[in-house]
Amino acid sequence: RTEIVNNTTRNLCEKKTRLHFGGGECAGVQIIGSGRARVFITSPGGGDITLFRLLDGDVSILSAACMLNGMDIELDMEMEKDCEIYTIPKKVYRKLYDESGAVKDYTMEMISEKFSDIMWLFNQFVFSNVASRIAGALLEHRAIEGGDELKITHEDIAKDAGTAREVVTRILKQFQSDGLVKLTRGKITIIDAKKLGKI
């Protein structure tokens, strides 16, 4: 424990900061002390597709996965709020991983959980329509914010739903006509979360 405390570094990342992971590099395991970050991949066309989010106390699956030999994932992370990030060096964490069954079990459980989330997401892309994905993105933001007023843009939703901003705008207008949401500049207010969940 002393070794972890003595070697862990603390960094402050401002909102909108982007970090890239992969390409054979592995700085260590990162923990979100405070803030919120979006983990995403970039499509060949240049668009972002959100995979999952990291909240207070979450351990980055990206940095944990690089502890495993032969496992290289290229992903990006964008800070949605100012973030405080703690990094445990690879050498220190690897020693704990090799010597402690509890640390190894926790690491594998964490990796398995996030990959299950990613597989669920890809199933949504394959089997769900765009309107359903947009509704799901709205409900995810509602859960994160803890309320019905969401200070997000159509572009934010497009990244989460893996579609074009114009498509999001068109479908949100339809949601508004159906009495599910209310649209104002820079804000989306959810009116009927129950019906959104059934789309």
TrEMBL record:
Keyword DNA-binding: yes
Annotated GO biological process: regulation of DNA-templated transcription
Keywords annotated in UniProt: DNA-binding, Transcription, Transcription regulation
Domain HTH crp-type: 128-194
InterPro entries (alphabetical): cNMP-bd_dom_sf, HTH_CRP, RmlC-like_jellyroll, WH-like_DNA-bd_sf, WH_DNA-bd_sf
GO molecular function annotation: DNA binding
Entry-linked SUPFAM superfamilies: cAMP-binding domain-like, Winged helix' DNA-binding domain
Protein name: Crp/Fnr family transcriptional regulator
Organism from which the protein derives: Candidatus Mediterraneibacter gallistercoris
